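Example S7 (structure tokens).
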């Protein structure tokens, strides 16, 4: 292909990306230092909480090697295509979802290096029919590798939510993620203290998993506000494996309350007007 033609294609794609992103009011990334701390759990439940409030929400899974969003939402459909654009999968009346896990088989490892990942992310952002949205929530793999880097270069995020568990080693890593986000010019809204305590199933007493008052200790260490403190709740893990969100299947529990509080805190920090 001629070089000028290739340049033209790149320019057009960049333009499509900018046009798509301009139609989305708030772009929010969920990031952590460590793996397995609950990013996808937070991304999925925050998206559902906002969609239940009546906002138009998209959840874009950018964990290309470990796309867990479809399973956690129980989505088995694949995206379709229209006029050369990807059409994301609808989840309820207000939510769109897109994940590489909907395209490749679950057991198929995605063996991609940086440039290919960048190009896949570009395609998700530019070559997808997102329409007008209030929120786009990005679920990321742990740490600050290619996916986070590409996203933060391509999109001006309105906020980043850090997810951590309350151990000192997790804090060290989340600090790195926080500095990285700030150096890339993005605003960190605060953090989620996940698996912070558990409720004894026998006596109903609260057991702090990593010492008392971990949310305020974390808040001091990170210099950030705690947006939600989520208990360690075995039923949550089971429900997520079955594609059942905490908001719909754990009504009236501390877990549901924590996710609703998180959504409310995000809204108040971003200013939650509809598109
Ligand atoms: N508060 C919680 N109580 C019980 N289980 C939880 C809680 N939060 C997350 N889990 C479970 O812990 C596991 C890891 O959570 P999740 O996949 O959301 O983490 P992650 O940070 O996205 O992981 P990765 O870094 O691999 O993407 C999942 O099985 C999830 O169901
Ligand atoms: Mg995840």
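Recovered sequence:
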């Amino acid at each position: 292909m001629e070089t000028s033609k290739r340049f033209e294609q790149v320019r057009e794609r960049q333009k499509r990306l900018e046009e798509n992103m301009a139609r989305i009011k708030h772009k929010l990334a969920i990031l952590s230092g460590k793996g397995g701390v609950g990013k996808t759990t937070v991304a999925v439940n925050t998206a559902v909480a906002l969609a239940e409030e009546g906002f138009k929400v998209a959840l874009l899974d950018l964990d290309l090697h470990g796309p867990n969003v479809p399973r956690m939402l129980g989505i088995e459909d694949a995206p379709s295509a229209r006029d050369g654009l990807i059409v994301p999968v609808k989840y309820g009346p207000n939510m769109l979802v897109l994940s590489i896990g909907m395209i490749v088989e679950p057991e198929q490892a995605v063996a991609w290096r940086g440039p290919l990942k960048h190009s896949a992310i570009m395609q998700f952002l530019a070559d997808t029919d997102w329409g007008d949205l209030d929120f786009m929530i990005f679920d990321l793999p742990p740490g600050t590798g290619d996916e986070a880097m590409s996203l933060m270069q391509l999109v001006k995020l309105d906020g980043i939510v850090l997810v951590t568990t309350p151990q000192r080693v997790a804090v060290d890593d989340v600090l790195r993620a926080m500095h990285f986000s700030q150096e890339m010019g993005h605003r960190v809204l605060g953090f989620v203290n996940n698996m912070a305590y558990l409720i004894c199933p026998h006596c109903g007493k609260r057991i702090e998993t990593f010492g008392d008052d971990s949310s305020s200790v974390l808040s001091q260490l990170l210099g950030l506000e705690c947006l939600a403190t989520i208990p360690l709740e075995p039923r949550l893990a089971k429900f997520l494996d079955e594609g059942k969100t905490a908001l719909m299947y754990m009504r009236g529990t501390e877990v549901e309350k924590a996710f609703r509080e998180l959504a409310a805190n995000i809204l108040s920090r971003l200013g939650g007007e509809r598109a």
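Notes on this example. The first helix runs from residue 3 to 22.
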